[in-house]
Design goal:
Blueprint: E1 2-3, H1 4-9, E2 15-17, E3 23-24, E4 26-28, E5 38-41, H2 54-59, E6 64-68, E7 80-83, H3 86-97, E8 106-111, H4 116-129, E9 134-137, E10 141-144, E11 147-150, H5 158-170, E12 175-179, H6 182-186, E13 197-200, H7 208-211, H8 214-226, E14 237-241, H9 246-252, E15 258-262, E16 269-277, E17 280-287, E18 290-296, H10 302-316, H11 321-329, E19 339-340, E20 348-352, H12 357-370, E21 375-379, H13 389-400, E22 403-406, H14 416-430, E23 436-438, H15 442-452, E24 458-462, E25 469-472, E26 475-478, H16 481-493
Parallel strand pairs: 4-5, 5-6, 6-7, 8-12, 8-13, 9-12, 13-14, 14-15, 15-16, 20-24, 21-22, 21-24, 22-23
Antiparallel strand pairs: 1-3, 2-7, 9-10, 10-11, 16-17, 17-18, 19-20, 25-26
Length: 496
Amino acid sequence: MLKIGKLAACLPEAVLQGDTEVDITGIAYDSRQVKPGDLFVCIQGFRFDGHLFIDDAVEKGAAAVAAEEGRELEHLSVPVIYVPDSRQALGLLSACFYDYPSRKLRLIGVTGTNGKTTTTYLIKSILECAGHKVGLVGTIQNMIGDKVIPAEHTTPEASDLQGLFSQMAEDGCTFAVMEVSSHALSLERTTGTEFDIAVFTNLTQDHLDFHSSLQHYLNAKTRLFAELERDEENNKAAVLNADDEHSIYIAERSKVPVITYGIEADADFRAVDIDVRPEGLSYLLEHEGEALHVRLSITGHFNVYNSLAALAACWAAGVELDTAVKGLNSTPLVPGRLEPVSLGQGFAVMVDYAHTPDGLENVLKTVRGLTQGRSIVVFGCGGDRDKGKRAVMGEIAGRLADVVIVTSDNPRSESPELICEAIGDGVRRTIGGKPWEIIVDRRQAIRRAIMMAEAGDTVLIAGKGHEDYQILKDGIIHFDDREEASRALRERLGQK
């Protein structure tokens, strides 16, 4: 509980109208979730403006309101904090209300187009091997130690995030690692959060429906690094992929020491003698004249980069390199990331979250290297999202897969047939004489791929990974690629 006057004082440009001694017992940004004693912060959402629901929030018991300047709210019977930017205010108010919990943790943020989830899991595994209790905030789930908390966004809204950090600190976590999306940075969800180490995986085309250009997308990612402040007590660092050209731009804007990792370029952490096999991968890690053998039970050339990023981040956080390498070996399977589905069939079935051009290309190249027979890919693209990547992903699939089945992903408000046709335009450019088809019904597309597979083939079901839902025009339905693959396999194998 805090007085509204103390909360308002954390906002340098705020103007408080009303009683400064009113007690605040919580913070809400959704009028439907307001409880008596809450401070209701009015934020502009994609569909609704919170300012339109102020009266509803007060009626439900909101003890005070934070609204943007220029609003006429003198009629309200509760105190009002007027702010220039209510999204930014939500972050700062939430951090203050929860007593700045990110300062009580060593916080590692991971951003980039691809690899965020796997990298955070690898970091968590290493830190736990080093004896720390670790919190995780991510796409699949949030975790406090071993306790799982469902995730609704890659990065939660600011007040939810600060509440999560507070729980982590109270439960004895010394570290937290989180995926930091470009949306979260642009929408101020991480405002009020103090990071110690920031990690950049890569940057390729994605989310251009939101950011409008690749440069704006890069600028959003760069905020995580530009806002890291030097701290003499806590060693802060920016961990960058030396093989990604965008790292130069980020490094120029970083105020903290830069640590690099890579394969091709000269880097502080470099992998050589890489060996990628179906059962896992290995390489020789070179760092400051030292060479260590690294082995992981996950496969894929792109996971060499993810593991290097995790090693560099944990080393920057003070973990001995020998311990960090051991921690990699104990990382559990990351759900929906080249996740196998096996019922004893004579061919491989893998489910992966790859939903960007670069992600699809990487996973198809990995599958090609692990497959003796044909690679059969089932994938689609989401509706109401970056339309420019649809034909591009079609071209990639046509070039790298032996059989392509284009299907629906999360069409949202768009026509799934039209999305598939846009992808098909790209497939036609590169497929040559190889077989391909459009099957809009995702369940039937997965079944088709599994029924046609022969011994030695690999069926890759890409795009949704860990997701257990499909977003359609009329609402959300339960749909899990892993369940559908298992269903089709049971049918093929005559199992119940």
